[in-house]
Amino acid sequence: MNDKSKVQNACVIVLGDIGRSPRMQYHVKSLSENDFSVDFIGYVQSPPLEEIRASPNVRIHELNPFPELELPNILKYIFKTIWQALGLLITLISIRKPKFILCQNPPAIPAIIVAYLYCLFARSKLIIDWHNYTYSILELEAPDSLIVRIAKKVESFFGARAADGFCVTKAMKDDLYTRWNVRATVLYDRPPQQFQSISIQDKHNLFLRLGESVSAFRMAQDAAGEDIVECTAFTAKHRNGEIKLRDSRPGLLVSSTSWTPDEDFSILLSALDQYEREALAMPAHYPNLVCIITGKGPLKEKYRKIVDSKSWKMVKLEMPWLENEDYPKLLASSDLGVCLHYSSSGLDLPMKVVDMFGCGLPVCAIHFDCINELVKHGENGFVFQHHQELSEQIGRWFYDFPSNIALANMKQDIQKHLKQFQTLRWTENWRNVALPVFKK
């Protein structure tokens, strides 16, 4: 921190797991590096970034989670909302008065309501970071319900009364203005520095480490040649110390998810079924495929059972939980990414694609209205509508892998576009776009 007289107080609210809210963590990190002392409020179910935990300019205030009660859904929702509102209000009263509160949306209820009322009395500014719409997420499970109508009213009323706002796409900016007369600045997600390309040495070390718990990364030592002293399913270390990618390695496909209803993983499983059939029919042209799906969430066990029932011979799918430092390295070591996030509102963009692009990894992403603000079909990845298209894209990418001469020009062109994307990182973009709003 520079001159202490310049330091201003800020508050950031996430009514969710701080450790699984990367964009808000990046906000906190950037604020703390630019003359702000930050009170960061939220649930701490996963560890936040080390830079945040170690920063003298950040205080994390952990909210108590709502206790598990056997109640009808409507009563549970009412009691949970009251619990969260009181916990948030008590925490806000206990912190230093901030110049502004930056509040993530969703969820709007009760975070935006409590934050607005606090700002009204404390004479602080409320800034909303619109990641999506709360009502559109609730609509997935309860269309046309009372709670959806209430959420829509809350977002429109308090959104229009916030001092400022950010949003994640141009499409959302336009929609906010035409729908609710809310003005917001587009702050695109950009990859932070840890999401970048890595060396073959780092890839080899990662595969060795992951191989201790995930069999798909391991290779029996007796399958290696005499000249090889250390081997993974993808890499080999020779006696002279040189590390190379193995010519006969499997293809490495990666995806990440929170295992929620807005991502239909049956699409990927159907595409892998199709790949299995084609690879068995033409084994000389298609490699074995290792598919890694990271993340945790409510639907994970459902899909694990489906995967366990498969009798694939050419496809191996694993669902490990990765440490924070290993996830970017896995992306940078993979051959192709898959994104099944389709957006409940059609107006937000998946951060996982930003992370993959930051690591130089091309992506197959499911189509929705504004995905073309991020994924340009044929330039930095591919867009698909259904599992047949995804299967065709995976099959084309891995045909005669890893040395398909016919695909070399296309892959080089995609890498060129990804390198261009990698030049603008979160820190620089935030300083250009967000900092002026916070400094007002």
Automatic annotation (TrEMBL):
Residues 247-398 form the Glycosyl transferase family domain. Coiled coil: none annotated. It catalyses: an N,N'-diacetylchitobiosyl-diphospho-di-trans,poly-cis-dolichol + GDP-alpha-D-mannose = a beta-D-Man-(1->4)-beta-D-GlcNAc-(1->4)-alpha-D-GlcNAc-diphospho-di-trans,poly-cis-dolichol + GDP + H(+). Pfam families: Glycos_transf_1. It comes from the Eukaryota. It is a single-pass membrane protein. It is found in: Endoplasmic reticulum membrane. Its main location: endoplasmic reticulum. One of its GO terms (cellular component) is endoplasmic reticulum membrane. GO terms for molecular function: chitobiosyldiphosphodolichol beta-mannosyltransferase activity. The keyword Transferase applies. Pathway: Protein modification; protein glycosylation. Keywords: Endoplasmic reticulum, Glycosyltransferase, Membrane, Transferase, Transmembrane, Transmembrane helix. PANTHER family: BETA1,4 MANNOSYLTRANSFERASE (PTHR13036), CHITOBIOSYLDIPHOSPHODOLICHOL BETA-MANNOSYLTRANSFERASE (PTHR13036:SF0). This is Beta-1,4-mannosyltransferase. It comes from Anopheles melas.
